[in-house]
Amino acid sequence: GRHLFGVVAMSAKGQIVIPVKARELFGLEPGDRIVVLGAEGEGIALIKESNLANLLNTVVKMDSIIE
Q1: What per-residue confidence (pLDDT) applies to 41?
Q2: pTM of the predicted model, to two decimals?
């Protein structure tokens, strides 16, 4: 499940183009909202907003089961 999609260049405006294979694999469509996460010294991660919402809902449900 690990992938290397290639190298992209950042524009002067800070924009990057997500490679086609990555967009297809993760079901990214024009207009999708992407959350940009980062950890200093670690790197940057991108996650589709709807996937993050689903993940957070799952964590909240698991937390309520544990209590």
Answers
A1: 95
A2: 0.72
